[in-house]
Amino acid sequence: MARHLEVGARGEDIAARYLASSGLVVLARNWRCELGELDVICGDDGRLVVCEVKTRTGTHYGGPAEAVTDDKARRVRALARRWRLDNGIGPVEIRFDIVSVLLPRDDEPTVRHLRGVF
């Protein structure tokens, strides 16, 4: 597996554990369709929480969350609607979060959970 894919997979594992430990119920991970992929989908008191996970090993090119562009946010919103319909879930409140994971080479991972950011 390419290094960037390994970093991304590790970050998603860390993010899913973090979200579960924060009281969210992880409903799906890495859900895919022809439109793209959702990283982590959670339930939280009757609402869906769709989390885009961004992982980096450093901040030379900015923080992980800065990689979520307006285009990416639009795609995630469309994918969330598709996931909801494909899973037979009626209208429900959906919150869109970013989970930023920083994996420095010689230090512990840092997780930052940005709620309702797009």
From TrEMBL:
GO molecular function annotation: endonuclease activity
A Pfam cross-reference name: UPF0102
The keyword Hydrolase is assigned to this record: yes
Source species, domain of life: Bacteria
Secretion signal, residue range per the UniProt entry: none
InterPro entries in the cross-refs: Restrct_endonuc-II-like, tRNA_endonuc-like_dom_sf, UPF0102_YraN-like
UniProt keyword terms in alphabetical order: Endonuclease, Hydrolase, Nuclease
UniProt family annotation: Belongs to the UPF0102 family.
Protein name: UPF0102 protein LV75_006331
Species: Actinokineospora diospyrosa
